[in-house]
Amino acid sequence: MHLRMVFGQSKIVMFQLAPQTADELHAHEAAYQISIPIKGTASLLHNSKARDLDAGQRLVVSPGDLHQHRTDDSPARLLLITLQQELVQQAAEAHLQKPCPPIEFAPWGDAAQDRLRRLVEHQLRSALTAPDAVEFEAELAALLLTAQPGSHTALWQRQTPPLDHPALLRAVTLIHDDLAGDLTLDRLSLASGLSKYHFARLFRELLGQTPSRYIRQARLDRAERLLRQTRDDITSIAFAAGFGSLSAFEQAFKKRYGRTAAEYRKQM
Prior knowledge:
Layout: E1 3-6, E2 10-17, E3 31-39, E4 42-46, E5 49-53, E6 58-61, E7 67-70, E8 76-84, H1 85-96, E9 108-109, H2 113-126, H3 133-147, H4 153-159, H5 166-177, H6 185-192, H7 196-207, H8 211-229, H9 234-240, H10 246-257, H11 261-266
Antiparallel strand pairs: 1-2, 2-8, 3-6, 3-8, 4-5, 4-7, 6-9
């Protein structure tokens, strides 16, 4: 095993399997695990069904599912991301804004690998300075729920605007990667590769709102999550969520939630 990091409700492990070896057949109770080959090809067994995976694919194991990692004549390096079931459930219910049954994911996937790896790599780098484990775990859970089909998918897609257009996807990715940054229309249109006029028009057509409104809602989502999951003071949360001042945050928060951030936290 080469690397192991444990956060509040998640864990990252990177390890190498020697040729013709395997770990034990096992299951995770009350946790999901994402297995991503980083180098080489691994044979992954899931509930008696085996499949060879390379760096462009993944296995997502739901709680209680039996699985195993194996190699043939060549070694393989794997990234394992474990998320507690409670974390994923909270992320789903916060997004859907209602309770939902325990989520069962389809086991195999072959999209969003780059975003998963970038998110993990960013967290590993920041761990040496000032890691934001709560935000990392929330983004990781949301990315899993978006990228991996499962029992939640129909409801999730109705609540999540389609991002099939590559220019729009680049801009929205920038928004969520740098929510506390200076997300001007100039910067977003540059990231999208479109003129400001065409970018703003496309954004409204496909997402049903202006870029500024989308950013404000995303920042409020982050602030609400930090209020629930941390003990940070409200001023710190306002700036971490990307608001330029405490007064701007308080005004936007009260307009959306009908109470101040302090009142909201007391009533949780």
